[in-house]
Design goal:
Number of strands: 0
InterPro entries: HEAT_PSME4
Protein name: Proteasome activator complex subunit 4-like HEAT repeat-like domain-containing protein
Strand content: under 5%
Distance between the termini: 65 Å
Shape: elongated
Pfam families: HEAT_PSME4
Oligomer: single chain
């Protein structure tokens, strides 16, 4: 019944962890329920796929820099200036 399916999907969604590998059958079940007649099952499958995406996303890599490295970086004023520049010619339409 749909109630049993809903309970099962809710439990599967709660069992998702980063340390536990996700079987492909679990992912396939969530994807199959995206087109289910029951709205609650569709919502749970959306949350499950969102959780898969977050679990698969790699962590950020932080590069630490000292304050001296940041402040000693030379700033070239010619690179950034307002107005017409040669590198923006492709954006213009009929030289406007």
């Amino acid at each position: 019944t749909w109630r049993q399916q809903e309970t099962t999907m809710s439990l599967m969604w709660l069992l998702l962890q980063k340390r536990v590998p996700i079987p492909s059958s679990c992912i396939r079940t969530f994807v199959d329920f995206l087109v289910h007649d029951n709205v609650e099952l569709r919502k749970i499958s959306e949350e499950g796929i969102t959780a898969f995406s977050r679990l698969q996303k790699p962590g950020r890599i932080y590069v630490e820099k000292t304050l001296e490295e940041i402040l000693q970086r030379p700033v070239n004023v010619d690179e950034c200036r307002p107005g017409d520049r040669d590198d923006n010619l492709w954006v213009t339409i009929d030289d406007y």
